[in-house]
Amino acid sequence: MHRHLPRLVSPRTLWSFLVSGVLALLCLSVAWQPIQAHALRSVPSKDWPMYLGSPGRTSYAAGETAINPVTAPTLTTQWTINANGPVTTEPIVVGGMVYWASWDGYEHASDTAGQPLWSTWVGDSSTPHCDFTRYGPSSSGVVTTIQRHGQNRRVLIVGGGDSQMYALRAGTGKVVWKTRIGLQNSGFIWDSPIVYRGMVIIGLASVSDCPLVPSGVFELNASTGKIVHVYETALSGCVGDGIWGSPALDAARGTIYVDTGNPGTCPQSLLTYGESMIELSARDLSLLGHWEVPPAQQVDDADFGATPTIFQATLPTLGKTEMVGAVNKNGIYYAFRADHLGAGPVWEKRIGLFQGNPFNGGINLGSAAWNGKRLFAAEGQTTIAGNTCAGSIRAMNPNTGKFLWQTCVTHYCQGAVTVVPGVAFAGCGNQVLGVSTQDGQVLYHLAVPGAAFPAPLSVSNGTLYASDARGLPDTPGHIYALAPPSS
User: Fold this and answer.
1) How far is CA 462 from the centre of its chain?
2) Which of 44, 79, 196, 352 is the most exposed place for a label (fewest CB within 10 A)?
3) Tens-digit pLDDT profile for residues 256-272
């Protein structure tokens, strides 16, 4: 409905069955063409074209100048969009358009003045026996250019609430193609895609383990939606090991990093990659390396829910080294050499406590941000200088994990940090906070009664965008646009 306003898949696996059978009926199949579709790799134009801003998931708007340590305290609400459902996606901003989905089942586009442009149905999942009776679209899109019928088309590629991937015309919302990658009402696309050399890369998980389902990473042709490669995180016949943090790309090495949730059952003692960091080839999704959280550090339902961050460190004898890191639900941030996962973490640092309750900050899901010098993380309950904090925002030395500063906050933080030069922003409970990247001093504070800000904030052309997910699954949420007063 559209309104204009080392396991590659063999032909015998379950995934192959889905590709050759059910998916063939549901995917708009077009002959494969060797066309390159290029997602924006940085934000020189000050757009925010994908989840966390870049394929490396650095969440850093290097070109932002209007929002800075001087103007951050003056941010005011420029406009508010009243959505028809909670909003758990990060707003994507490209070419004067803001893209966001809500749990009403629609992907929406507005202009940067907050005026509606189009809405397209991308589905939801009915789950009467799960935590919520219904789940709406939770994937943030990526804006890219594909070639169709000899013409370049700008599209938004996004995961729907019905376990299908969608390519939508960026200007109108018209469906270009859609492809099912999971079973509706049990599989779910929590994560957000990247596009690399003409391929869309996306993970699949379950709906809140209700039930656990076969999970994996999919690579689709960006122009046609055809599934080209699949990597199963558990062997055929097993369930679990879902991917609900988004894939990160090391473009220089052509490698993809994903982290996984808890394993499920297998018919026999088979190797699975639950609660692990995994490295895959971006060319064909072949396994290059992996590391699993040690049993002594595993907690109940010990998922990785955070998205990996690509960053750099200077290590003894190695010098400048490509790194990848993420926090586990257990509250420990693990940092690895990107080319040597199997050796284990170069360093690890506790940045949150595990209390088991996601609604009071008892689990840790926030992805880090990287500004080229420091890592920034915001998490739930923790202890700082002997004091118990509901949440925290921290800066870490990328070489060692040492805290450079720590800011105790009054609400738990769940989404990723978003950084502009001089200021780090995070959503913490019903608050949007901005702190100095130099010393952690609070520069900006917005409290919205009844709101919840679990999604990362995005920044584009002097405006900070925030998504409100209050009252899951049915209470209407909002999109807020915050900016300094016009000079």
Assistant:
1) 23
2) 44
3) 999 998 888 776 555 67
